[in-house]
Amino acid sequence: MKAIYLVKNGDPKKAFELRDHKIESPGEGQLLINVESFGLNYADVMARNGIYNDAPPLPAVLGYEAVGRVEAVGSGAEKFKKGDRVLAFTQFGGYAQQCVADSRTTVKLPDSISNSAGVALATQYCTAYYAAIRMANIQPHERVLIHACAGGVGIALTQLAKWLGCEVVGTAGSDQKIEFLKEQGVDYPINYRKEDFATSVRAKLGEHPVDVIFDPIGGKTFKNGNKLVRFGGRHIIFGVSSWSGSKGNVFDKLKLAWDFGLMHPLQFLLKSNGVIGLNMLRIAEQNPSVLGDVMAKVVELADQNILIPHIRGEFKAEEIADAHHLLESRNSIGKVVVNW
Ligand SMILES: NC(=O)c1ccc[n+]([C@@H]2O[C@H](COP(=O)([O-])OP(=O)(O)OC[C@H]3O[C@@H](n4cnc5c(N)ncnc54)[C@H](OP(=O)(O)O)[C@@H]3O)[C@@H](O)[C@H]2O)c1
């Protein structure tokens, strides 16, 4: 049994090694899964670059999600049986031929959903669903602003928002992505490399133009975006991609804090709006059954063709460096998948 280990930070060509990997039998409530496909997430790139706080110590097997077949069932997980085709949230350990997963964050996958679409559902679609439905509680006719709108989570947020009848403003960093956003039904696509998104949104839509912002960028994008939120609005911060490329030193940390800007709880009271942080790892730790419920819901919506993951690239395990390179290049639109 093999796994792809992250052995050092930096260049993807030198960072990974395919190594023998010994795995424990599944404990109580756990499943042993023969992995067929696993997905990449932007957090993997940050972990590889050594700037992801939640990353396990090296050498480590990354990976938040896997699709495969159940090989063995631990006690208390008998709602699954050997041979079931499943999607599992793995909370690291996904880049492996076998993984052990919590049965509460594993769902059966219908044959209508491909392996690649399945891995897209676990982290990116569940993050989007949790953010949009449980946290922001988006409503028909609300206007939502989605940053990194052509990324995996961004596409998922767009599909959920359109399904619920919202108007969507989406930002992306290339004309190719803008064309893709138009195809996805984004009402106001903005190439933030060509125009300042906040100025552009105000010019098109007024002084307090959005009900909800979904922000995985942080820093100045957060500060400038926050001023656009209407009374009663919600600003969901679920990533800090602007931290990419930083050296992680004290000066970079101070700059990031400065870019975010200072906030006081009273200002939320006065404006009757709020900022909510989302980290799915914390949800998985304290509320695994809630994550399981969300997984079941996104699988159901994908089975009904309401949610349709967009697959940007499929790679073999030995091409892991190329897969990482694609994700880091910011040219990817949708999910990057690796198959064993
Ligand atoms: N909190 C959670 O639980 C959770 C869960 C999943 C994902 N996330 C976060 O959500 C974000 C998107 O994830 P994803 O899986 O959708 O990733 P993705 O598909 O790789 O999309 C990321 C996109 O972010 C945009 N971006 C903007 N500024 C960037 C920067 N400085 N560096 C790199 N990319 C930048 C890029 O698109 P443009 O060039 O078009 O802007 C890039 O393609 C990441 O920050 C990730 O860590 C958080």
From TrEMBL:
InterPro entries: ADH-like_C, ADH-like_N, ER, GroES-like_sf, NAD(P)-bd_dom_sf, Zn-ADH-like_protein
Domain Enoyl reductase (ER): residue ranges: 10-338
GO MF term (any one): oxidoreductase activity
Gene3D superfamilies: Medium-chain alcohol dehydrogenases, catalytic domain (3.90.180.10), NAD(P)-binding Rossmann-like Domain (3.40.50.720)
SMART domains: PKS_ER
Xref: Pfam families: ADH_N (PF08240), ADH_zinc_N (PF00107)
Sequence intervals crossing the membrane: none
Superkingdom classification of source: Bacteria
Protein name: Zinc-binding dehydrogenase
Organism of provenance: Salibacter halophilus
